C-alpha cells in the first residue's frame, strides 16, 4: 500500500470507528433479543453516511439523475466525455431528462440497449463530462460498499453479501413467470376463432383509450392477434407507461386506438414480504451475472456506480431485488456490455470508459 493510500484508509477507518462508537445508532449496539434486521435502516442514518464521503468523492461528478416527466426514475453514470451515460433501461418510458450536480437539466435520448442486463446507453448533447473509472477488481464478500447518489454522502451503504455469481434456475424461473409487460386491462375470450373483449377493467388503460365490451381485438402494434396467448405475448414485450396502437373491429368497422399502458396491480406475496415498505425494481432478476450486496437501495437509485472503501468502482447497481438484496453488474461484464452497445451505434470502435489498474497494492 502506498503512503497516501495508507493515510487515506487510516483516516477513513478512524472516522468510521468514531461514528460507530459515538452514534446511538451504532451497528453493533444490538442485544440478543433485537430484530437482526433492525440495524439495516440504521446504516443509512445521516451520521453513519458521513463516514463514507471520502471513498465516493472522486466518483460523484460522474453520477447524474435521470427523470421522466419530473419524476426520478433512475441514476445514470457517465461513461464517455462526449455525452454518453449508462442507466437502467426498464424504467425509461417517456421523454428523458438528465440532471447534473450543478443543477443543469438536459434532454437525453436512448441510443442503444442491452436487454440481458437491462441497460440503456443514453446521449446528451454535452462535451467534456467527467467519466467514471471502472476498477477491474471484484468485490470481496464482507467488505463495505457505498452507492453514490446526488449528494456528497452516499444514497446508501451496505456489505457485499455474495460474490459474483449467476442467478439460480429458481430465480430465473421466478423472473420469467412474473408478468413484466404493460397492463391493458381487458378480459379476452375466443369467439368464432377471433379474440373478443368480454370485459374492460374499470379505470384501466383500455377503458381510458375507449375500448369497449364486445370489441374484437385484431392487432397489438404490428402483431396480429388470433389467440389469448397472443395477447399476453404481445403485451409482455411492452412496458408500463408505453403508448401502443391497437386495432379493433367494432360493429364491422375497423378502428385504431392509441393506448398508454398501465402497471399491473396484482403484487406477488413474496414481493410484499421482501419490500417491507420499500419499492423493489420492476426488473429485478434474469441478469447473466451479478454482484450481490445488502444495501437498502431505492429502486430509483439504480443505474449508479457501486464503490468500495478505496474509491474503486466495482460495478453498476442494476436492481433492488429484496428486503436486503441489491444487485450490481460486475465491471468486467459491464465493460463487455458497454462495448457491444457502442459498437451497435458506430462503426468506429469506441472505448467504454477508462479502467483503473487492478495491481494497485493495499
From TrEMBL:
It comes from the Bacteria. Residues 1-29 form the signal peptide. Keywords: Signal. Residues 173-250 form the PDZ domain. The keyword Protein biosynthesis does not apply. The keyword Signal applies. Coiled coil: none annotated. PANTHER family: SERINE PROTEASE FAMILY S1C HTRA-RELATED, SERINE PROTEASE HTRA2, MITOCHONDRIAL. Belongs to the peptidase S1C family. This is PDZ domain-containing protein. The lineage of its organism: Bacteria, Pseudomonadati, Planctomycetota, Planctomycetia, Gemmatales.
